[in-house]
Specification:
alpha/beta; Rossmann fold; 7 helices; globular; binds guanosine-5'-monophosphate
Length: 184
């Protein structure tokens, strides 16, 4: 499970990881946030209405959920169970609240925190991606400060300074977990 503040680079990291590891599958979350330019329904997220999200929640279809930056996000249970049954490991890229819920339900899951090299880099990445309004950036940075303080509850932490180095480190963590028989 990867958690990181917005702008720490966890999406790119997750893409690189699944590309290099056939046993690893990425979970596609449901969210009530609107798609950003370039994002696709079913690939980046399942974009749903608040009502649909509520229906998922009340029918126990979600393994975890959280409100992040004013929107709802959640992980559907069924695709995860199917993938695990097929012998795959699942990569969840979710926030710290969701990560805590998954760890409670699946103690064998590995919590991996992706850190930006420093706060200034985080701000630069968020501003540079031109996907958020200035108000949304301020909110994401505020949440990021809070999330960074949660890093100490995680099983592992990786600094995403150079992507290739971070990918290598996470792959080593996954390999070690597989040897121990735990889940990613
Ligand atoms: P973004 O809107 O930038 O794609 O994601 C915002 C935050 O929501 C990120 O911290 C991301 O990890 C988190 N997130 C994405 N999907 C889920 C999910 O299914 N559950 C939870 N709890 N957080 C999620």
């Amino acid at each position: 499970m990867l958690s990181a503040p917005s702008g720490a680079g966890k999406t790119t990291l997750a893409e690189q990881l699944v590309r290099r590891d056939r046993r690893l599958a990425r979970s596609v979350s449901v969210t009530t946030r609107a798609p950003r330019p370039g994002e696709h329904q079913g690939r980046d997220y399942h974009f749903v209405t608040r009502r649909q999200f509520q229906r998922y929640r009340s029918s126990q279809a979600l393994l975890e959920w959280a409100r992040v930056h004013g929107h709802w996000y959640g992980t559907r249970r069924a695709p995860i169970e199917r993938a695990l049954k097929a012998g795959r490991d699942i990569l969840l890229t979710i926030d710290v609240q969701g990560a805590a819920q998954v760890k409670r339900r699946c103690p064998e899951a590995i919590l991996l925190f992706v850190r930006p090299p420093d706060f200034a880099t985080l701000r630069r990445r968020l501003v540079g991606r031109h996907t958020e309004t200035p108000a949304a950036i301020v909110r994401r940075l505020r949440v990021a400060r809070r999330e960074l303080r949660c890093a100490r509850w995680y099983d592992e932490a990786v600094v995403n300074d150079r992507l290739t180095v971070a990918v290598r480190r996470v792959r080593a963590i996954i390999r070690a977990a597989r040897r121990r028989g735990t889940r990613t």
